[in-house]
Amino acid sequence: MYLIKIGCLLAAFFSLPPSLFSQDTTALILRDIRNKCREINAGKHTYRKVGVDPSGETSEGGEATGYFYKDGIVLIEERMYWESGKSQRSIYYNNGAPVFIFLKESTYNVPFYVATFNSKLTKVTEDRSYFYKGKMIRWIDAGKKVFSARDNMYTEKEARALSLAKELYDKVLAADTSKKASPPDKHRTK
């Protein structure tokens, strides 16, 4: 019952027109996005998973996993590895649209196979992007600077993030075999 109430509240909230934004409205939307992400994380172990290749090239490999709740993708997690670091990206979706993207990048002091590699010297940065109705409403960059003004840098970041979110969403959707009919068995007797 609680999840139904939360779902109704989120549906109502996500249907508000962007022109109603004030600082208070943005704060409420951000709170609802955070609550939605917590809800998804809490149920993650029960979701159906579909694996795909990651979005880009890596020197040491990578993986991406889509999590389905009922018939919709609610989360995609992508891990990519390089000689000099790794990245972990989580994209949370609501009705097929990204609502939050979290990127954590780890940069090693030297490539992991060099004798002087020290995991304690790894530099870790985080980047957070919040979305509402297909627009980024807040971005917190790796330097922990908060952006909300729609300047060129902001809109370029928004376009790249939305493009990646769509690319991964489409890949996971295409790889989902649960909806595809299996071919008829040629050896079945009549």
Mind explaining what this structure looks like?
The chain has 190 residues and is of the alpha+beta class. Helix content is 31%, strand content 33%. The chain is built from 3 helices and 8 strands; from the N terminus they run ααββββββββα. It has helices spanning 2-14, 23-43, 152-175; strands at residues 48-52, 62-69, 72-82, 85-94, 97-107, 123-132, 135-140, 146-147. An 8-stranded antiparallel β-sheet has the order 1-2-3-4-5-6-7-8, sandwiched between helices. Strand 3 (72-82) and strand 4 (85-94) form a beta hairpin. It is globular, with a radius of gyration of 19 Å. The termini are far apart. The model is unreliable at 16-21 and 186-190 (pLDDT under 50).
Helix/strand order, N-terminal first: HHEEEEEEEEH
User: Given the structure, what is the number of helices?
Assistant: 3
Radius of gyration: 19 Å
> What would the principal axes of the Cα set say about the shape?
globular
Order of the strands making up the biggest sheet: 1-2-3-4-5-6-7-8
**How many β strands by DSSP?**
8
The chain-level structural class is: alpha+beta
Provide the low-confidence segments as ranges. 16-21, 186-190
Instruction: Kindly state the percentage of residues in helix.
Output: 25-40%
Distance between the termini: 48 Å
- Strand residue content: 25-35%
Largest sheet features: 8 strands, antiparallel
| Average pLDDT rating | 86
Summarize the structure.
The protein is of the alpha+beta class.
